[in-house]
Amino acid sequence: MSYQVLARKYRPRSFDDVVGQEHAVRALVNALDKDRLHHAYLFTGTRGTGKTTIARILANCLNCEQGVSSSPCGACEPCTEIIEGRFIDLIEVDAASRTGVDDTRDLLNNVQYLPTRGRFKVYLIDEVHMLSTSSFNALLKTLEEPPPHVKFLLATTDPGKVPMTVLSRCLQFNLKNILPDVIAEHLGSVLTRESFDSDDVSLNVIARAADGSLRDALSIADQAVSYCGGSLEGDRVAEMLGTVRSDEVARLLDAFADGDRVALFKCSNELAARSADLADVLANLQRAFHELAMAHATETKPEGDLDKYTDRFSAQWIQLAYQTCLMGGRDMQYAPDPKVGFEMTMIRLLDFEPAYDSVDMTPSGTAGNGSAGRKEDAPVEQKPSKKRRKTKATDPNEKGSAAKVGGEALLNGTPWHERIEDIPASGVTAMILEHSNLVTLTEERVELLLDESHDTLYNDTQQGHLEEIFSEHVGKSVEVVVTAGTVIEETPAVRKQRLAQERLDLAESALRKDENVQSLMSEFDGRLDAVQPRSD
Q: 493: how many CB neighbours lie within 10 A of its CB?
């Protein structure tokens, strides 16, 4: 007998075999056992989560000779033919290849005729979102008034493209991505039944690579069995998939803890040399930082060998490291090549650590001293360079974002919202000032708190414009630091918007109280629509 791939051999044939979709299975089992059947079902979810498999099991339950139930016998002719894919009353259609309205009309021409062999005539339409608008309209007519002997089972990976008129006539089940732990457990059971050896590391590597798809996990396992010669080992499976090995993650963490740049970039070069997926490396670092963060938060030990790092990294640096890896993974697509993007992220992890306020020693920003957040390092207040943008901020405590000593002479008692009107800024630079509050103002330094909802306005070019403007205003070189964060006091832009709204409310109130306006509205059954305050 020819070899059958694992994904087909272990395809579920009953609801008891379905993995990771308990919410959908429970609802279908109850509906079948209590004879509360709908005429149309829509199964949605990403690839390999069981959409068409569950639909076929449902078709089997509807047509078993023993009667409609959630547990078909699996031995009668309809059950056997459905399992083998040759049951005449189960009409399976791939909508991706039959998108035209003529195809749909041909398909539905025989809907009114009774089933040939089974109890129900079942139409299983896969990737239904690929149908054309005309095809959906043709299908809709049948969905509105279906014959009692017909059931529609629709499956799609993109329910957003299915018209609401169709969605509203279907009972919808959203199948979830299967968790890696569930995939790994099921995969271990399958490999044991196939007499293949495997370790926990190899199962976890495959489960993560499957990205929520059990079918993909079984396909990867097939490939791994061939690659590893029948015995799956974690490092060899990782090598096959181009993913990071557990010892390589440990080497990276050791390099961060020791501040060892040579070791870090040696590991980076080795990863690139064996064509490892560097985005996956960042993802594995994120998982490690998550485990360490949870250990700090819950005062428990992390899983595996990560326990030795709980005392080597501060909780604050772990949070920053997780965020840095997250942003590095997002930005990798913009790098000249993955290695450049990966190494720039590694440099940030080496050189950046949470900045600490010099008074209460609480984290207040992002800065670097090359220590990578080692616990033995005393927290030191760090100043960002002129071109470095801080990522986290502490709001000013004094009312109105008062300037520090030395700034009063520059403000001359003028409020910040009035002072920026005299600053010769335009375009985006002016918008930055309007959406910021003043934190510090001296003759050498200006520090602004930019509303985080407008942080995309700020970049290195605007940094240069701001320093040039303030330097000309003061008559000497001035350092400008812009920090994005949560603004408590209203910015000039918010103040301007508030005053405009108050003027509008006042004008509308005055109009509603005007006797002439009231008379007109009463006589002609009118209403006050748009109000525009006078410019004066």
A: 16
Instruction: Name the residue ranges covered by the structural domains of the chain.
Output: 6-174, 180-241, 246-367, 408-489
Under 8 Å between Cβ of 124 and 62 = no
Instruction: State which CATH number among 2.40.128.110, 1.10.3720.10, 3.40.50.300, 3.30.310.250 fits the domain covering 6-174.
Output: 3.40.50.300
According to the model, what pLDDT value does residue 411 have?
53
pLDDT tens, position by position, 251-272: 899 988 888 889 889 988 988 8
Say what the pLDDT of residue 59 is. 92
Q: How far apart are CA 132 and CA 332, in angstroms?
A: 37
Tell me the residue length of the chain. Answer: 536
- Judged by phi (left if over 0) then psi (alpha if -120 to 50, else beta), residue 337 lies in beta
Q: How far apart are CA 320 and CA 23, in angstroms?
A: 37
The fold of the 246-367 domain, in CATH, is Zinc Finger, Delta Prime; domain 3 (1.20.272)
Q: Across residues 458-470, what is the average pLDDT?
A: 85
pLDDT band, very low/low/confident/very high, at 370 (cuts 50, 70, 90): very low
Question: pLDDT, tens digit, for every residue of 156-210?
Answer: 998 888 888 888 888 889 998 889 889 999 999 999 998 888 888 888 889 888 8
Tally Cβ neighbours within 10 Å of residue 366.
Answer: 22
Does CATH number 3.40.640.10 belong to domain 180-241? no
Average pLDDT across the chain, whole number: 81
φ/ψ (deg, to 5) at 121: -90, 120
CA–CA dist 15, 213 (Å, integer):
18
237 touches 199 (CB < 8 A):
no
Question: 23 or 394: which carries more pLDDT confidence?
Answer: 23
Residues sharing a CB contact under 8 Å with residue 519, sequence separation 6 or more, in sequence order: none
Q: How many Å apart are CA 465 and CA 468, to the nearest integer?
A: 5
Q: What single-letter DSSP state applies at residue 20?
A: S
Query: 61: exposed, middle or buried (C-beta count within 10 Å: 0-12, 13-18, 19+)?
Result: buried
Contact 8, 137 (CB under 8 A): no
Cα 358 to chain center, whole Å? 36
1 class by beta-carbon count within 10 Å (0-12 exposed, 13-18 middle, 19+ buried): exposed
CATH topology classification for 408-489: GMP Synthetase; Chain A, domain 3 (3.30.300)
CA distance 373 to 356: 12
- The strand pair at 445-451 and 479-485 is best described as parallel
Structure tokens at 148: 């009692």
Name the nearest CA neighbour of 45 among 232, 152, 230, 178. Answer: 178
